[in-house]
Amino acid sequence: xxxxxxxxxxxxxxxxxxxxxxxxxxxxxxxxxxxxxxxxxxxxxxxxxxxxxxxxxxxxxxxxxxxxxxxxxxxxxxxxxxxxxxxxxxxxxxxxxxxxxxxxxxxxxxxxxxxxxxxxxxxx
Length: 124
Prior knowledge:
Low-confidence stretches: none
InterPro entries: DNA/RNA_pol_sf (IPR043502), RVT_2 (IPR013103)
Protein name: Reverse transcriptase Ty1/copia-type domain-containing protein
Order of helices and strands: EEHEEEHEEH
Domain Reverse transcriptase Ty1/copia-type: 8-77
Strand content: 25-35%
Pfam families: RVT_2
């Protein structure tokens, strides 16, 4: 059974489906009515990166995640856990006091990361 979906956000339109013929037919209809511009295969939609492989299509929010981490100053401290390329958990701790050596705080952060990793492995 052929399936085609039309995703619309303001002036962005994304056509997706399992039949290229049906997608092309819908593009012709839309172009006849609204004079649309075909930008080819989608790479981004609503801030999501669209990746293609022989296994299918994946949606990523890597750029947005990095933007948020930078915006909230979370890039240089703490730890992040990914499943594939999806961020599933992160921690950040600000040091209450400054020390000459960061090895103690790095050890505590590593200890917390190991605990988090064990928990994630347990639930998987």
